[in-house]
Amino acid sequence: MEHVDMISRPRRLRQSGVLRKMVRETRVDKSSLIYPAFVAEGISEKVEIPSMAGQYRHTLDSILYLAEDMLKAGVDKFLLFGIPEEKDEKGSQAYCENGIVQAAMRTLKEHFPELYLIGDVCMCEYTSHGHCGILKGNDVDNDKTLKYLAKTALSQVEAGADMVAPSDMMDGRVLAIRQLLDENGYTNTPIMSYAVKYASSFYGPFREAAGSAPSFGDRKTYQMDYHNIREGIKEALTDVDEGADIIMVKPAMAYGDVISAVKEATCLPVAAYSVSGEYSMVKCAAAAGCVDEAGIICEMAVSSFRAGTDIYATYFAKEIAQYIDEGRIG
Ligand code: PBG
Q1: Which atom of ligand 1 is the closest one to the Cα of 203?
Q2: 139: β partners
Q3: 79 φ, ψ to 5°?
Q4: Considering 121, 133, 138, 203, which has the largest number of Cβ atoms within 10 A of its Cβ?
């Protein structure tokens, strides 16, 4: 038998499935998965989102079936987005006691107390102009917006949210939310801050889903420039100082370097959001027969955890849970 003198042979540890699994460096667990869900006013049954095959705008009724289905699969965390019928300049439905997201939280909590509910706190789904805050001229008025965001967070917590997740990217919003929650006795409600959120074309399908595309301009005066990573660390550290409990990086797939850097720079758990465009690209490429859908989903998820993600928000949460059950990843 031919034999070259070699002491180190990396292939030794790849000889069998048992061995490969034993030496895995990254472990994936269902408890770290969050499923983003949309609940909408003005529809009588769930409606599929055209650019996101398999994802729906839900009614207050259909969201309960979704919750049952997800819990059965082992996914027990929802990130909830509301889509109101009426949008106005000040995004009033975002902080309305009877807003759609507040109503969804109450009914979900009533039927499934074991479901962990995270409220997305932002104004763009609720404003007529589609920007993430209150406008002054053609720009978002940062400081004026803070009290609206805080009010939105409080109304969600009063409706049953276990955690709030501000995604607006205004400066100072984590502190504003923390203070208002604390004043109202919610000192134990955590804030997961979308601290490192880039102005990204990967959000395209979401904006169709939520009807939240800005009616003019873009989000570049508040969301981050994707050329920057040190600025992301600055954003993360600022939010740590303001009382954030979890730091999120968004999008996930093209931002592994940012996830690793934020993990290194803070002592907080790091979440990554695999956004709508990531989902749609996989669905379209798989439907066209270009890639193996399950393979791609697994590889994307594991690569995010490998980069340092502790918590993974993904529209593929149910599929990933199934792949974990099947032993494909884990
Ligand atoms: C709200 C918000 C957005 C997303 C999450 N929260 C859209 C945006 O910033 O334009 C994107 C989520 C996704 O693409 O899946 N600001």
Answers
A1: 14
A2: 136
A3: -105, 115
A4: 121
What's the whole-model pTM score?
0.97
pLDDT digits (tens, 9 = 90+) for 220-274: 999 999 999 999 999 999 999 999 999 999 999 999 999 999 999 999 999 999 9
The dihedral built from the CA positions of residue 218, 85, 119 and 181, taken in this order, carries a sign that is: positive
Q: How many residues does the chain have?
A: 330
Quick one: pLDDT at residue 211?
86
Tell how far CA 219 is from the center of its chain: 18
Instruction: Give residue 211's identity as a one-letter amino acid code.
Output: G
List the catalytic residue out of 77, 90, 197, 263. 197
Residues 56 and 45: beta-carbon distance below 8 Å: no
Helix (H) or strand (E) holding 180: helix 173-183
Helix, strand, or coil here: 240? helix
Residue 115 · residue 109 · CB < 8 Å: yes
- Tokens 């082992």 correspond to 74
Distance (angstroms) between ligand 1 centre and the Cα of 55 equals 15
Sign of CA dihedral 66, 68, 74, 78: positive
CA distance 260 to 281: 24
Residues with CB under 6 A from ligand 1: 120, 122, 124, 132, 167, 203, 206-207, 219, 275-276
